Amino acid sequence: MFRTLRRALCVAAALLLPLAGTQSAHADVDAQAGAGYWHTSGRQILDAAGQPVRIAGVNWFGFETDIHVVHGLWTRDYKSMIDQMKSLGYNTIRMPYSDDILKPGTMPGSINHDGRNTDLRGLTSLQVLDRIVAYAGQAGLKIVLDRHRPDAAGQSALWYTASVPESTWIANLKTLATRYKGNSTVVGIDLHNEPHDPACWGCGDTARDWRLAAQRAGNAVLSVNPELLIMVEGVQSYNGVNGWWGGNLMGVAQYPVQLDVPNRLVYSAHDYATSVAQQSWFSDPSFPANMTGIWDKYWGYVFKQNIAPVWLGEFGTTLQPAVDQKWLSALVTYLRSTSEHGADSFHWTFWSWNPNSGDTGGILKDDWQTVDTVKDGYLKAIKAPGFEGGGSGPDPGGPGDPGGTAACTAAYTVSSDWGGGFNAEVKVTNKGTTLLKSWKVTWAWSGAEKVTSMWNASYTQSGTGVTAVNAAHNGSVPVGGSASFGLGGTPGGGTVPSVTCAAT
């Protein structure tokens, strides 16, 4: 987002050539599209089977902030959020992060584990990201990782700072690309959020030329995971023409990004309304009719000239001023309706899912539950079919040898006992050297206890013996991570049983 009014929580027109022979019918996209990794062909993104797909999603921020995790988990379960995104017709999550989450032992804050997010207890920020990726893939959503900030303190104009040099930036990008290699839920990486002055495009100064830096970083990512899409944002200024931070792609015409792996490049722009900042075009007497020419000049021509796909990675507004309502209506029309154009369209992720973006608000209202139906309604025409769940590879397990040993331990804790009954929680921890794909916990009571209910696991009981098996959503446990389930039983007053965990 353009940051002169940055929120505290996150805070020469081009010649347009017609495109011949494009696939533009909405029949090109169906509910099963999106399988596997993606690649580009001209201005379109195609899935592994060659079907055109359209990114139509939301930004869910928080990993880039000082709590090092997506926001809202203090009040909701992450799975319910992802389920709600899917139910509203969003098919992709842009996930901002800072390099802080790559530091060993970085732990998330502000997560409510009381009856929700129980499988996130004790996990590092990266391990929480693993869980979100795994569940999003299961639900049929794709994820684009967005290097939003070098650290939680704030954004940076350039891709490096004194404390986070270019070498660290690239090393961390490669770490994430490697971590999710083989899991096509993570379909791409946005290399750096909103480069702006003094960043340049095509000036040749390696300390400022974002185009050259994007090539270095993009090729480094592709060297370890050649299947990923590489998202490259624009800059602020080009040849004296200023725009939104990250929103100026005018330099692409003369200085295109060149990657070693073909058909992996997606250009990205950001565009905002007056609730973020004023721009000269908002006061033009011809507004909003003038906006098509503005968008064509800054970034739209890249799509219209069939140079590459264009993804509007951020756009948003509070919708309070009438001018903002006109802007969003015009922008949605410009992005091309799915019913008419299918996936032969601009790609997009709205800013934001979160309601706590101070200068835009979000799809959710302040209770983190209720949908802003007016804002969501503007986006209806450009939403696109979802993708088949499951991804194309195993859930990421983080560090560990895929051929290593699967092993687990379990700890049983009584959380309450009122004599007539009791509640208990069992925590399963991956103590092996590879991803734990499923688990089983067994124990024997010493008395007459019976399980009356169980959540986040299924169970059988025969006499004093109990066997609990993971639920569908928490069987995958990364190395060093944990999952939990709870149970109710009767009577109370019994001793804590000895529990055994087995990888299955």
From TrEMBL:
- Under which main EC class is this enzyme filed? hydrolase
Q: Name one Pfam family in it.
A: CBM_2
Q: Where are the transmembrane segments?
A: none
| MF-aspect GO terms | cellulase activity; polysaccharide binding
> Per its UniProt record, what PROSITE patterns does this chain match?
CBM2 (PS51173), GLYCOSYL_HYDROL_F5 (PS00659)
InterPro entries in UniProt: CBD2 (IPR001919), CBM2/CBM3_carb-bd_dom_sf (IPR008965), CBM2_carb-bd_dom_sf (IPR012291), GH (IPR017853), Glyco_hydro_5 (IPR001547), Glyco_hydro_5_CS (IPR018087)
What reaction is this protein's catalytic activity?
Endohydrolysis of (1->4)-beta-D-glucosidic linkages in cellulose, lichenin and cereal beta-D-glucans
Instruction: Check the UniProt entry and state the signal peptide residues, or none.
Output: 1-27
Domain CBM2 positions: 401-504
* Record keywords: Carbohydrate metabolism, Cellulose degradation, Glycosidase, Hydrolase, Polysaccharide degradation, Signal
Which BP terms from GO are recorded? cellulose catabolic process
Enzyme Commission identifier(s) = 3.2.1.4
Q: Which family does it belong to?
A: Belongs to the glycosyl hydrolase 5 (cellulase A) family.
Output the PANTHER family linked to this UniProt entry. ENDOGLUCANASE (PTHR35923:SF2), MAJOR EXTRACELLULAR ENDOGLUCANASE (PTHR35923)
Query: How is this protein named in the record?
Result: Endoglucanase
